[in-house]
Structures are given as structure tokens and as C-alpha cells.
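Re: your question from the hallway

Yes, I did run it. Sequences:
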Amino acid sequence: MDNLAKNKFTEDYVENLQRITLKNFDETSEKDKYDALCDTIMERINQEWRASKNKSRYERTAYYFSAEFLIGRSLGNNLINLGIYDEVKELLDELGIDFEAIEDYEDDAALGNGGLGRLAACFMDSAATQDINMYGYGVRYREGIFKQSFENGFQKEEGDSWIKDGDGWSIRVDSDSRIVNFRDQAVKAVPFDMPVVGLENGKVNTLRLWQAEPFEEFEFDKFNNFEYDAAVAKKNRAEDITRVLYPNDMQRAGKVLRLKQQYFFVSASIQDLVAKYKRYFSDDLRFKNFHNYHVIQLNDTHPNIAIPELIRVLVDENGLEFEEAFAITQKVFAFTNHTVLQEALEKWPIDIVEEVSPRCLEIIYQINDLLVNNFKEKGLSETEIDPYRIVIYDQVHMANLAIYVGFSVNGVAALHTEILKDDTFKHWYEIFPEKFNNKTNGITPRRWLVYSNRALSKFITEKLGTEDWKYNLDELKGLEKFADDEDVLNELWDIKQENKKRLATYILENEGIKIDPESIFDIQVKRIHEYKRQHLNILHIIYLYHELKKNPDMDFYPTTFIFGGKAAPGYFRAKAIIKLANEVARVVNNDPDVNEKLKVVFVENFRVSYGEKIYPAADVSEQISTAGKEASGTGNMKFMLNGGLTLGTYDGANIEIFDHAGEENNYRFGATVEQLNEIDQSYNPRGIYQTNMDIKDAVEALVNGELDDNNSYMFLDIYNELINPQDGSRGDRYFILKDFEDYKKTHEKINKDYRDKLAWSRKCLMNIANAGYFSSDRTIINYADEIWKIDSPNY
Ligand code: GL2
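Structure:
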């Protein structure tokens, strides 16, 4: 901004502040100041937003359908992408306003559970920055993922009404409202559009989130009749649909309301696309060119009911024949799978599908018939066809629907895609090999570096002598030339130290725990799942605690273990893992024999905005899932980009991180998928427990009174799963004990290596320098290029 623009900004800002509050400047609150800043920025975005919309109207566009968009806060990110972050901070400073203080008035838009939802948000940022036409379509949940707190170490959940004080980043577009018809109910779908600003390129894409509303606020007759509850019953029933995000990560909900949410946003979105197409391509009555302008990417199975819905709209509302509509549909849909865990692959009982949309169920049967005939022609018998059926045993298989109809199926990391082809969807791969492809995930460097790690960002620009890396992250490779430059390595070390100090201060304020910024920060933040093996990490901490108790003078570099993440409210064992971590933290942190050397913190309510403070401060990134189970992971990339070294299994995108940054610059441990497959049947966790005393002592602590679970039997539950299975299985499904010894040894190596500051800093540098591949810009360009066939000016 030149001086004129700066003055204008300040003028607009003060004027907005007074206009929306009717107060004099010095009477306004910090919240007022935050609100006015949103307004001022939205005004600036508006013009480019309209221009981008107008320009893309007659161009091929991708539509990213996702039940989740885990956005976080928008203020800082928008300022970064508009290229006015530092200047606005300065201008506010001149007005006596502390930017960081007002930033905290923004609630995270936490409309997602974890990686899958955050990926969608990163893709939005990258598409805009790479000038790719992409609309996001989703749900405007009034309650995001619950807020987590700990009571006596147990997780407590509380609602997260993120828009109760308004939402400065959305525009309600009443004129684009649609009607969504369920079997027993019709509701209004009202779109709220959020701008998605590209990095200083004038491109603004749109994220359109639908909110369910009644047609009438209340029924007057009933009210007059003193039936007050009944008068608003319909309104509540409508609003229920988008009231709350299901907090189950990778767990089928199986509830009518959940399918209603899915159908709700998908139906509104499909109607939206078709209505717009008819407006702008009014002479194409048979939708012959529809597929030339639209490609819909289905983010997991959640939006897959869009497939019959498009056919329904084309056939019932636009007079096409089923065959015509089906042919269009085949050219429009592409499907991304995000997990191989069976409990996540959605299958809907047909009575639920019928209750939501009887017509879609009918169309699903029609598609299923096509499939059966088609496969019979290929020579398959009835039983050979079974694994492909969309409807079988009274259930609709949402993945089968998308794989059969869609033209592309992709996994989210190289190993994951191989597992899909060899195992999960092997039968499909045999018939349609050409549909399968890999798109390794990525993260946006704008939020996860430029914004959240200002010092490192400045360092990179200085060393490379250009800001080009912000658009093309491969340029980071240029940092390698400083790999042996001691001054540069020291500088990098100091940046990490500063970030660690900032996090330590924040943790003291928010968690009430004092940690030493000089200690190794060893961090595991992600949803709590058995397959992610937070309990492997905790058992190892118990082992370390035992060692330090036996020998307080042991040669051990002080380490702080930091955890963060939410457990699904109904996932007992995940909650047990949280309780266990908190209990170990209580014991360790209060024991003066060890607490100079060992600290454990489980931060409350880990979320995007907490992550922005955590990722830049990590020395060690724990990525310790059972090999073959983590489809990709994306937290691993956030740590890497910020110079955290990966302590990881050979799983998901860890493998690609090791490939790019070098195994010598990271810490790989544990069994491979092949090894686990081999021992699967003969695995004997009890045998390991009986012969390895370190493991025995750590596992014993779960039940010998050393740790207190307040009679919840939570620790016994973990113990039983490991070595005393109650269900006749072999126990330790996720191979905790199998990988323990290697994990322990690798930790020992880390503990030694960290003491050589220059060598460690060199590894950090090598990770940063090779993080380019993990930019979601690269990922989205791959989607645009290989699946969507949409031009991006940058490839
Ligand atoms: C996930 C995978 O578990 C995770 O490994 C992957 O990185 C993300 C994004 O592709 O998708 N699948 C899934 O259902 N959730 C994930 O985080 N929630």
C-alpha cells in the first residue's frame, strides 16, 4: 500500500468502527475493533471477488464437495494473502490497537474433525493462489467440533457456537436459496459465501456453505392456540439439520440426521450448479456440454449421494432420459478415498436412504441394475459380482457407488493408493485400472508458514533473496546451499528457540504448566485414535519415568512431551488414552526427582489456531501410526515445513517425507506394512510383554496402582487390549508392543543427537529445504492437471 492507500484504509476503518457501533472511537471495545476490521477487509475483497466470479462464469470449474471445511481463523490469513498484513498491523498500532489482542476475538471456524476437513481448507487456499477455478461446497454447521476441556484429566465436551456473535467473513445470499425435499420434510437451504483469497494475485474463489432454515419462523395458528412448542417445532426440525457437526472422525455415524446433512448440502449444491448452467447456457437444453464446465470432486464418501441427486435433477426436473443423465454423471464425478479403516467406509441401511430421499434410492437401484448387467456381460457370476454391488444386504455402499459411476478414484499418499489397489479396492482395480491414481496430500504454506512462523518466513526470504517460494514452494531447495554455513544454522536454531519460548509462555498461561524452552520439544498433536498410537508414546514416557526414578543422574537431555487432540465423545478407549496421558503428566510433573528433566503436557482444545503456535515450536514430530493405517497425515508436513524432525513409522506420507528430506535427517522406526502382514497371524504380544522387562514395567503401571484412573477402569481397558484381550482376538491390534523397542532406541538416538546443535540444525534446514513437494499448491495443480483437466496458468 502506498501512503494514499494507507490513509484510506485507516479512514475506512475508523468510519466502519463508528458506523457499526454508534460509538466514539475511544468507547469501542476490542470486539468492536475486530468486527470493524473484518468489515473493512471484506470491502476490499469485494471488488476482486466479483471480478473473479464474472471471469470464471464461462470457464471450466472444479467443485469440491465436502462435509467438512476446517478453516480456523480468517483474519490473519486474509491479510497475508492480500499482502497487507504488516502494514495493517502498523496502522492499527498507530491507532493504539494491539493486533494480536483483537485477533483473539475471532473464533475458529472448526467445521471439520481433523485432517480431511483441514485438507479441504488448504485446497481452497491453494486453488485461489494458483488461479484455478474451484468452488467449495459444504455445510454451515452452527456448532463446530466441540470445545474440549479436562476435568480431573477426563475429556469434557462443550458446544462450539462459533457464530453466536456474528460471522464477519460470510455473505448471506438469500437470492440463491434452494429448497431441499426430504421424504417427510422440506427445508430452505440458504447459502453463505466466504471469499477465498489467493496470494496477492487478485483471484478470489468462493466457499459456499449451506444453512438449513424453515420457510416460516413459526406457525401463527398454533401460537394463537397456545401451542407454543408446536408453533416452533417445524422451525427447530429444519434448523436441526445444520445444527452440529458430527464429532466422529472416521467413524460411521449411521444416523438419519447425518445422511440428511449430507443430502441437504449436496442437493442444494447440485441444484445450484444446474440452475446456474441453465441461466448462462440457456440453449443447451439437454445438458450436452454440462460436463465440459463442471467436475465435482467428492471428498470421501460423505457427499456421494450427489451422484443420484444429479441424475434426479436432470431427469425429474429437466426432462432428460435416465441414460442421458447417467452418461453426463459419469463424466462429472471424481472420488477421493481418505482411509482404509473399515469402520469409516460408509454403508447406509436402505430404510434410512429411503427416509431421506426415496427418489435417490430408486435411482441407486437403477444404477445397481446397470452395474449387474454390465458385469454379467463381462462374464462375472452373481457371486463374483457381490463385492461390487452398490446395494447388498439391504445396505448402500457409498464407495462402490462412486467408483462405479465416477471416472477417477484417488488415494492421498503413494502407499495409501497402493493399498487401495492391492487390497481395499483390489477387485475394482482389476476391472477399472485406468480410474485409479494417487494425489499425495499437501498443506498451504501461507497459513502454515508465512502467517504462523513470521521469523522463519523472513529468514527464508532473506536467504533466497526473493519471495517466489511463497508461490512455488520447490524454491525452498535453494536453502540447501547453506547446509554447512554455521552462521545460518545458528540463526535457524535461534528462530526455533524463540518459537519455543513463545509456546512455553502460551502454555504457561493456558495450561498452567511451566516448561523449559531449552528442553527438547517432542510433540504429538492430532485426533486421538488407537491406530495413531498416542499410547505407544505414553508407555514410552512411563518407561523413561521409571528409568529416571531408578537413576536420577542418568545421561538424559531434558525433554518436554506435548500432546494435543480430541477424542470422539463416544470412543471410550480414545478417552482412556487422554486420561492416561493426563495422569502420567500429573505424576511426572509433580515428582521433583524427575521434573527438571521430564515434563508432559496435554494441551486443552487443540485446534487450527493452537496448531499455528505449536507446529513452529517442535523439535520432534511424532508420526507413529501403525504402518498401513494412516492414509497420509498432514500434520507431519506442517512440522517438517517448520523444521521439526519426523520420528515416524514407514506409513502414509511419512514415507515421502523420508524420501524427500532423507532418512538421515529424520528418525524412522518400526515394522513395515509387509512385515506386519507377515506376522499378523502369529503375533504374540503377551510373549513380548513377558520377556521385555522395560515393556512389562510400563504396561504393569496401568494396573498396579502406580497410576490412578479414578475407578473408571479406563487403564484396565488399555491393558486388556494390549495383553489380555477379552474378545478372543490375539490382542494389541495396533502392534504397540511390537514396535516399542525400536521406538525406544530411536528416542535414545534423538536424545543424543540433539546435543550437537549444528548437526541438528542442519537436519532442520534439510527438512525445510525439501518440504516443497508437500505444498498443497503442488497437490491442487496435480488434481487440476490430471483429474480435472483445468488450466492453471502456473503449469
Ligand atoms: C483422513 C486420514 O486419516 C489422514 O491420514 C489424511 O491425511 C486425511 C486427508 O486425506 O484424511 N481420513 C479421514 O477420514 N480423516 C482424515 O484425517 N478424518
